[in-house]
Design brief:
21% helix, D-amino Acid Aminotransferase, Chain A, domain 1, 353 residues, alpha+beta, binds pyridoxal-5'-phosphate, 2 domains, D-amino Acid Aminotransferase, Chain A, domain 2, 20 strands
Length: 353
């Protein structure tokens, strides 16, 4: 759906309750340029296209990175950004890995604020389950041909109103392991760079087109790229599990996993609000019967309960293929309550627009 951008001021004509995760053109986006060692002030623009040099490193050598975060309408009408400083820090880590200049945290957060404020009419109302997804990105541009870092960079932030990434909110989905890897053991898995996602398109499509015993799969479970024996990620989300006795929140630790801001937030909430033990360690694909619940978590996925995992001929069900487990539900309520301002946030987690 493409909306008329001339209608700023009035609420966008959107069916908020049935939003999916698709591109909708919003009014304004932030755009800044880096050249000769510094960023310009940047500005908001209505143009949703980029005009860049044919030799841009982003086009040939994948020198680019991006982020994803959300703005939420609170009950009192104010607007919450969830931990934008963590996205800024992760983008800086991605920049270090691909030899790109940092976007300073203050500039990153301010750009997000400006974009939300300028597109407020696209922010889903409180209680609809929707949010305004922000997509900051940084690309290497300018005249170039060799494999080297770009002479210039563009930083931009645009936004799209979204609903759930996996349909049905807290409905469990099934997933299937892949023999493909999204990243190499010492590659770029921990950075949010486009190459990882290009590598994920084929296994993702294969998973969605596979059916085993009449079961369909929402996405791929990636195993560790060295041994293919431990769970790493769930499509574009992190993985967590709850031990069968309900006592411990466990999540994989590996240098090829994207450090999910949602996952680390859940880990804190599991420990500090649910009183669970928390563990970052190994989750072996042949030891899934240690866990009574499992989930995928991320900005887009929020928390998607994992019904079961197909691995070769084995299908392992956690809590249930149709019902969310009790710990996963409590984590979901705690997280989404904080994001929408209904529950008290740990210090610094919510930044008002
Ligand atoms: C590969 C991958 N893993 C995990 C996540 C979840 O990270 P976050 O919770 O910061 O959105 C994302 C989404 O950003 C992702 O693309």
């Amino acid at each position: 759906m493409t909306l008329n951008t001339a209608a700023s001021g009035q609420t966008a004509n959107i069916d908020w309750a049935n939003l999916g995760f698709s591109y909708i053109r919003t009014d304004l986006r932030f755009l800044a340029h880096w050249k000769d060692g510094e960023w310009d002030a940047g500005q908001l623009t209505a143009d949703n296209t980029l005009h860049i040099a044919e030799g841009s490193t982003a086009l040939h050598y994948g020198q680019q990175c991006f982020e994803g975060l959300k703005a939420y309408r609170a009950k009192d009408g104010s607007i919450n950004l969830f931990r934008p400083d963590r996205n800024a820090a992760r983008m800086q880590a991605s920049c270090d890995r691909l030899l790109m200049p940092h976007v300073p945290t203050e500039m990153f957060v301010e750009a997000c604020r400006q974009v939300v404020a300028a597109n407020e009419r696209f922010l889903p109302p409180y209680g609809t389950g929707g949010s305004l997804y922000l997509r900051p990105f940084l690309i290497g541009v300018g005249d170039n041909i060799g494999v080297r870092t770009a002479p210039e960079f563009i930083f931009s932030v645009f936004c799209v109103p979204v609903g759930p990434y996996f349909k049905g909110g807290l409905t469990p989905h099934n997933f299937i392991t892949s023999t493909y890897d999204r990243a190499a053991p010492n590659g770029t898995g921990a950075a949010k760079v486009g190459g990882n996602y290009a590598a994920s398109l084929l296994p993702g499509a294969a998973a969605k087109n596979t059916s085993v015993d009449g079961r369909h799969f929402a996405d791929v479970i990636y195993l560790d790229p060295s041994t293919h024996s431990k769970i790493e990620e769930v499509g574009a989300a992190n993985f967590f599990a709850i031990t069968k006795d309900g006592s411990t929140f466990v999540t994989p630790k590996s240098p090829s996993i994207l450090p999910s801001i949602t996952k680390y937030s859940l880990l804190d909430l599991a420990r500090d609000r649910l009183g669970l033990k928390v563990e970052e360690g190994e989750i072996r694909i042949d030891e899934l019967d240690r866990y009574g619940e499992a989930g995928a978590c991320g900005t887009a996925a929020v928390i998607t309960p994992i019904g079961g995992i197909q691995h070769g001929d084995d299908f392992h069900v956690f809590h249930s293929e149709t019902e969310v487990g009790p710990v996963t539900r409590r984590l979901y309520e705690e997280l989404t309550g904080i994001q929408s301002g209904d529950r008290e946030a740990p210090e610094g987690w919510i930044v008002k627009v």
